[in-house]
Amino acid sequence: MRETKNLEFKDSLPAPDQDLSFEFLKRTFQRDLGISDLTRDTLITLNLYEQGSGYTIAGELLADQNTFRGIDMVRFGSDINTMRERVIYEKESILREYEESITKYQQYYQYEQVVGAYRQKFELIPEDAFREALANALVHRNWAINAQIKVAMFDDRIEITSPGNLPQGLSKESYLNGEISVLRNPIIANIFFRLKIIEQFGTGIQRILTSYSDSTIQPQFSVSENSVKIILPIIQNEASLTGDLKLVYDSLQSIPLATSDLMQVTGFSRSKLVKLLNELIAQGYAVKLGRGRGTKYCRAQK
């Protein structure tokens, strides 16, 4: 079943494949919910199976094997031309794909260090933010599009790109503000909610932002006609900035300032100042407002 131009995809539609098994889902329910068995009645209650029509698309997505593209994770080097590692999790339960992706994230963005007499775990990127962003992609993506969720891993950030635009009736502003009133995949969302992978419908963006509350550099969200992208940067604070960059950052305020104002404070030439401002913008520390003579800059809000 694939989405047409005028028909919005629904995870309640009959699945193309009806020869399905649910061993991974069963083990997950046993581990997290204490459900001893996954009977046909349970599948019906969860809307993974419909009397008369069989398994739903949501059922196939959660089955041990399915026909859907999954998650493509690439660890890049200094640029996108250098691939250090690539793993693809697809055509299996999206719950399994989710867990495998979390393990791969932990490999590169978490480490342990002995501090005093104790071993402590440190995160370069908050695990809560990565979990929320990945769950958001799985729950809200358009599964009718034959494409993978892309997870690009860099030294300074992770980019998670979900195929398709927002569901009909959900604006970009409502999405970014966490006002999720339109669920493209309500059955999948309900399963993720039951398993406590997502806390509450519509709170994912705010939870991502909360996990960066102590970081100067903040996540970025991009919504286009063909995809939704979430960028999770390495956690940083003002102490990470040095030299001229720190001087420019310290000169910025929460209210927008013109280039001429910043030149007076820093003593830098216009060309040098603009170069430093652009670097701060690229790192997520500053925001550019307006164009031409009306251009102003301010600190990125936490």
UniProtKB/TrEMBL annotation:
<dbReference type="Pfam" id="PF22168">
    <property type="entry name" value="DIP2311-like_C"/>
</dbReference>
<dbReference type="Pfam" id="PF13749">
    <property type="entry name" value="HATPase_c_4"/>
</dbReference>
<protein>
    <submittedName>
        <fullName>Transcriptional regulator</fullName>
    </submittedName>
</protein>
<dbReference type="InterPro" id="IPR054760">
    <property type="entry name" value="DIP2311-like_C"/>
</dbReference>
<feature type="domain" description="Transcriptional regulator DIP2311-like C-terminal">
    <location>
        <begin position="257"/>
        <end position="297"/>
    </location>
</feature>
<dbReference type="InterPro" id="IPR038475">
    <property type="entry name" value="RecG_C_sf"/>
</dbReference>
<dbReference type="InterPro" id="IPR036388">
    <property type="entry name" value="WH-like_DNA-bd_sf"/>
</dbReference>
